Amino acid sequence: MAPNLMDVTVDGKLRKVVAQTTKQGWIYAFDRATGEPIWPMPETPVLQSDVKGEQTAATQPIPSKPAPYSQQGLLESDLIDYTPEIKAAALAQAKQCRMGPYFIPGSANDGPAGTLKCSWYAPGASGGVNIDSGAAFDPETGFFYVGSQTGMSSITLAKDPCSEFNYSSTHDSCGLLGALPPPPGYVKPEAPRGGGAGGRGFGAGRLGVSTIGGTGRSGVSIVKPKEFGGVTAYNMNTGDKAWWIPNGGFNQVTSADPMFKDVKLPPVGAGGQPQVINTKSLVIYGTGRSGGPAGAPPTLYAVDKATGKEVGAVKIPSKTSAVPMTFMHKGKQYIVFATGSGANTSLVALTLPDKK
User: Fold this and answer.
1) CB-CB contact of 229 with 271 (8 Å)
2) 3-state DSSP call for residue 116?
3) Which of 55, 70, 110, 273 fits as disulfide partner to 123, beta carbons 3.0 to 4.6 Å?
4) Which residues of 189-223 are buried (b: 16+ CB within 10 A; e: fewer)?
5) Model confidence at 332, in pLDDT bands (50, 70, 90)?
6) Are 226 and 267 in contact (CB under 8 A)?
7) pLDDT, tens digit, for every residue of 238-256?
8) Residue 65: helix, strand or coil by DSSP?
9) CB-hemisphere CA count at 13 Å for 282?
10) Over the range 124-145, which residues count as b (16 or more CB within 10 Å of their CB) and which as e?
11) Residue 184: partners with Cβ closer than 8 Å, 6 or more residues away
């Protein structure tokens, strides 16, 4: 995702800023001329690697402002606990990996046969801001609008039998083009139950964005639905968070599993990074390629940019897959956005009807 340039007034002084959104959930804001942080960014002690022979940085620079827009790290207090049964199931899933705050290093899968040693990290590879979501800055108000989602991944250091490297960034490479031939007697490992979509893993380990029971049980995230996906507004003159709205107003906790039949939550936002653009008075966003529960109609939303209150919604042919853009033609304003993915893609242009 590209950084945003902005001129804002911080502590009574005009500052020319470059702000970078990230998959970490932080906005890094720097002076465009000097590289000096706009707000303090102290070096903070972080957890260290438990991999033999590996040394990780003792500290990491943590922005003091703005506040993060995605959950960071995974603690036991972050796990869903709607009922004692659900809490126990979530904890059992979470304990398959090392839990802790953000910047938790990957662990080595060097335990007894059949065991998996890994570390959780959030937002993770599927969280934060993605390359197709971006952010929008309003030069008149100094407000900054970020579309993001909370996502978890796990990572482990494991020997790939078909690679010359001591780790593989996504999965074992046996059978992939250019890989080494499998060793004699090699059997491709199966993903443990409770992984991400399809039970497949993320990172060198094979335990992904964890759901209770994995695919085929409930598909409900083990993490409390604080901000699954949504749009966050920041006042970049102060570095303060102004508002947050859920992605599409959906309730992500929907399951046919009897364990969840009495669970009712307010809208907490669907997965998928919303793609935002701001106009004179509105923030307009699409829910993203993965936004919304199954069967939800693809929709483009418009909200009041000062408050986040929804003022309109328009059904569109398929889910948005890129940040919208806007232009004027013969006195009319148009909004254009890409939808779909793969071979099923299109550009859609919208405008208001002529006044009668």
Assistant:
1) yes
2) coil
3) 70
4) eebbebbbeebbbbbbbbbbbbbbbbbebbbbbbb
5) very high
6) no
7) 999 999 998 887 665 555 5
8) coil
9) 12
10) bbbbbbbebbbbbbbeebbbbb
11) none
